[in-house]
Amino acid sequence: MATAIQTPAQIAGMANTRFVRVSPQKARLVIDLIRGRRAEEALQTLRFTKKRVAKDVEKTLRSAIANAERKAEDSGESLDVDALFVTRCFVNEGPRWKRMRPAPMGRGFRYQKRTSHIVVEVSEHQRAAQDRIAAAAEEARASKGVKGAVRKARKAIEKRAKDAQKKKK
User: Do the domain assignments include residue 4?
Assistant: First the structure.
């Protein structure tokens, strides 16, 4: 039975954080800072943002990156974390906590503590996905019909050649 080489799509990871004790309006200010940026650059931005919710958003972004790495590992693909971008991120409103505050003359003022649901999705850049697929196809073509120790030796020789080229530059 012949095995066909499948061309996988872009690898993406998604993470949700629910019931964060911050108003959605305040969380959206931070989320807007990272939308469309590289994952590494977004982490740096969040690290130096002076908003309390930035830590929760950073934790969610790290979880999304880890999910993408895990998905790539499970599918047997190699993923370059530097090629990940924040493709989608948004904040939805969670349930409100209704509370009462004592007021003069035996009355009570009602107020609401708002919560948020944070969603962050990262995925590979399109060019990075194409390069990864091309490299996998080239490797499959090069090792076609070659078994065990010979394949390992070829990979070692190719790696040495690439390292030598990098040292020259």
Answer: no
Strands 108-113 and 97-102: antiparallel
pLDDT tens-digit series, residues 53-108: 999 999 999 999 999 999 999 988 878 888 899 999 999 999 999 999 999 999 99
Question: Is 164 contained in some domain?
Answer: no
Q: Domains in the chain: how many in total?
A: 1
Closest CA to 59 of 13, 21, 16: 16
* CATH number reported for the structural domain that contains residue 99 in this entry: 3.90.470.10
Give me 128's structure tokens.
């990075």
Place of tokens 């969380």: 27
Rounded to 5°, the CA angle 73-76-80 comes to 60
Range of the domain at 81: 12-137
Residue 87 CB-density burial (10 A; 0-12 exposed, 13-18 middle, 19+ buried): middle
pLDDT tier for residue 143 given thresholds of 50, 70 and 90: low
Residue 40 lies in a domain: yes
Answer whether 0.85 is exceeded by the pTM: no
CA distance 32 to 45: 11
